[in-house]
Amino acid sequence: MSAFLNFKILKRIYRFHTTRNKLGLFITAFVVLYSLTIILSIIGNCLQEDALTVKFLEGKNPLWVFFLTVILAPVVETFIFQYGIIELSLWIRSRFTKEIAIILSALVFGMEHGYNTIYMVLAIIMGAALAFYYLLFKKYTTGFAVAAIMVLHALLNFVNFLINNVLDVEI
Hints:
The chain has helices at about 10-20, 20-45, 60-90, 95-110, 115-135, 140-165. The chain is mainly alpha-helical. It has one domain. The protein is globular. The mean pLDDT is about 85.
């Protein structure tokens, strides 16, 4: 991650995260990722009123939406975008392997969320954050990294599901 760590703020963030134990890192990751979700939601809604609307989920049974967004998507997306792309990138081995892994993972994650241009750009940012945390969790084991990212992704989607479908609030 040497290229990314040329920025002082990113160095401090990285150092802070690497000093945490598993639970501390998980809690910190959730707080950071959910804060990022809120910030990106505000930006997206300021740029375009329905920028974060996923049209194909509108009007669907809430249980189906829950299954897709809270259970299926985090599992499938973690295996493809974090585990698959990052592990393949790390296997290739180059001087900037981790940076390339984060960028590739984020770009493909964003393209898969290409409901509209704004959503895609915001998803690329979130994909980079998930990839970053995947690499941090990987210091324990790859299995732990996969499980942690799946659970984090599911928790983020669950909170958004509750806000959007149960409380009926748009963020």
